[in-house]
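Q: Please design a sequence for this.
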């Protein structure tokens, strides 16, 4: 990775490559104006590493974090829900977790990262991977799933170290109350950690301002402010 330019105004941005899962992975990295800060992984929706996900990384960087959004689809971006579903199904959970582990290692190795552990923020499919990755990797100290969907069986949470702040829409028909309660019960029973699950008067993908049909500005703003406070509390 070439050296990132330092900035005192806007976040510095760069497409990066790093070793992961036995190969070379790609991602989008954003540095804060100060040039350094705690590390945060940003995990994509089922659409891929879109402009929206890169913008989330930029917003985190503007708030003082070093944000890395790994590309789990190897450069592919879905253009409709059918294609997105196919691409998500072609990414096994274990493979995604392996790729994310490489991203965590890369982020923690950067001299610009001041934290000894990282946080993870993800959306929809990425929210599920936030949960899966936190369960598998004790280097994740804070996990923030936005409407996170866990594919298949729940992971083993006995190694979980991360505090969890989850954001879910009350009108999200794809994630039932029962599934949320099942997730919370499993986490509490296996790890002793009680997730902070917050509900909003919105549907699925309420944070995605690139999709006006789902975006809810009030819910998104509230979830964003609580996320920033949570990340600062957990990472310092």
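A: Design:
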């Amino acid at each position: 990775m070439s050296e990132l330019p330092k900035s005192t105004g806007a976040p510095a941005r760069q497409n990066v490559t790093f070793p992961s899962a036995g190969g070379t992975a790609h991602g989008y990295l954003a540095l804060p104006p100060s040039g350094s800060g705690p590390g945060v992984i940003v995990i994509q929706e089922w659409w891929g590493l879109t402009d929206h996900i890169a913008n989330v990384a930029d917003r985190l960087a503007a708030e003082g974090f070093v944000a890395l959004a790994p590309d789990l689809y190897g450069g592919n971006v879905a253009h409709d829900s059918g294609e997105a579903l196919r691409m998500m199904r072609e990414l096994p959970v274990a493979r995604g977790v392996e790729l994310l582990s490489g991203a965590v290692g890369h982020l923690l190795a950067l001299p610009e990262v001041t934290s000894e552990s990282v946080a993870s923020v993800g959306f929809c499919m990425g929210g599920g991977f936030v949960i899966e990755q936190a369960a598998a990797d004790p280097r994740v100290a804070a996990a923030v799933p936005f409407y996170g969907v866990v594919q298949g069986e729940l992971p083993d949470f006995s190694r979980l170290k991360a505090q969890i702040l989850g954001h879910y829409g009350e009108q999200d028909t794809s994630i039932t109350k029962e599934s949320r309660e099942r997730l919370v019960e499993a986490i509490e029973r296996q790890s002793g950690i009680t997730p902070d699950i917050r509900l909003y008067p919105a549907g699925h993908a309420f944070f995605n301002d690139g999709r006006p049909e789902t975006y809810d500005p009030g819910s998104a703003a509230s979830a964003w402010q609580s996320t920033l406070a949570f990340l600062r509390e957990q990472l310092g």
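Q: Thanks. Anything notable?
A: Helices lie at 51-62, 81-89, 93-109, 125-136, 177-191, 217-235. The chain has a mean pLDDT of 93.
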